[in-house]
Amino acid sequence: MKKVLVIGAGGQIGTELVLLLEDKFGKEAVLASDIKEECPQALAHSNYISLNVLDKEKLSAIVKEEGITDVYLLAALLSATAEKNPKFAWELNMEGLFNVLDLAKDGHLKKIFWPSSIAVFGPTTPKINTPQHTIMEPSTVYGISKQAGEQWCAYYHEKYGVDVRSIRYPGLISYTSLPGGGTTDYAVDIFYHAKQNGEYTSFLNADTALPMMYMDDAVRATVELMEAPAEKIKVRNSYNLGGISFTPEELSNEIRKHLPSFEINYAPDFRQEIASSWPQSINDDNAVKDWGWKQEYDLKKMVALMLDKVDPKAYFKG
Ligand code: SER
Question: What is the residue with the minimal CA distance to atom 2 of ligand 1?
């Protein structure tokens, strides 16, 4: 019987992925976990357990006692935070992965999902329509950890038959739970400021194009990849996903169609350098060909939905 453990479930992806998994497999088939003792508000109706992925013994005990078959490992430090705490980022992002991969290697898990990122690419990567297989020389701690992680996933699959699957997420845009410490976070923050103040100061320059994706597409892609027959999964490090490419200026122009007096200013900080090292758009032909990926949200649909749904009260309170 399928039983899913989501690790890092309190984060931006986890809060929405848990709901989708519950819809698909039933509440009893999903166990959400996060490092917080208290169950995060967004998971109040889910089965929840407190878990630090670096606590190998507790992780192993939960997997065995709960009869976990599939793990979605989302606990990680993102790009901007990782630059401030490189050693801990490396420890969390890599040891967490090994703890889960080893459980699968020892026969305790059937499947693992592990997220990678556009951060695996670097300044020497072709920036437009970045191919699946290309130069990867990441310049951030986060990107280095994701690239190494991808290759470990491929290695565990090749040498030990571990069924681990992965997506290189673009920047993710959602309103249920805020992103924490990423370079693409401006594309979420902007909606709260636009709605509350009619003004936003971007920490990236006007013309910095980055690949982004609306969360519904991202979590649907994740579950579709995980539920695809194993023989269809030809890429065992991590799949490119395209998403929507836009600049802060293009995003603000779209917002202005709903809020005509919206103003954007630019005050780039250290995140500009990170963003400049990443691709502007991504080629995802392999995901389309291998497991039938199809994106639903474009810029127009995403902006209309975000402006409708974001709640500035909660954002500015805390
Ligand atoms: N959205 C992430 C970040 O900005 C990239 O995976 O760090």
Answer: 182
